[in-house]
Amino acid sequence: MSRSVLITGGNRGIGLAIARAFAAEGDRVAVTYRSSPPSDPGLLAVPCDVTSTEQVDAAFTAVEAAHGPVEILVANAGITQDTLLPLMSDEAFTSVVDTNLGGAFRVARRASRRMLRARRGRIVFISSVVGATGGAGQANYAASKAGLVGLARSVARELGPRGITANVVAPGLVTSDMTAVLSAERQQAILARTASGRATEPDEIARSVVYLASEAAATVNGSVLTIDGGLSAGV
Hints:
alpha/beta, Rossmann fold, KR_dom
């Protein structure tokens, strides 16, 4: 059956790959964006800043009118503002945490209301291996991504009895616009610690998210699926 799917930050990179993967399954797919919508004609693009409760509600209202209540939510929207701790401003810390963690909370809260009525739903939070390993100059980003694990596991315990699952996907180095800003030296240093010796492709992340949203994963709840080519093995 075609399902109503919403991916935040789904206009590029990992989010767009996830959106395309669900669309290929025959689902009704919507994505949120802040700057520019994706060019894919099969995707419903709605503007939304996930730091705004009002914009989150408006985005869900638009998706519900077009596709019906959201059955699968992928909380992917995120930003970085890497700065060494002594130089990191309050704004750099709070803006990253409010977007990456606060935004995920806002969209999960809004989605849960209709999921509870239906007694079914899938929520997938896109975290990062940095949430488990930490990263120099990434105290804000790592804290926000680590927080997603606690959020997901709390949601899993709270909503699991009503047929709703909440899981986390934690990618390592992924070929995307976000990682393209890293210097070649930095990327090589990461790959040198990665068992597979290569970056993960967005499509590989997307396939894992589609699995977590499937009936095959009905009892996978409160889990963290790390997809990093072995970067964090043994950590």
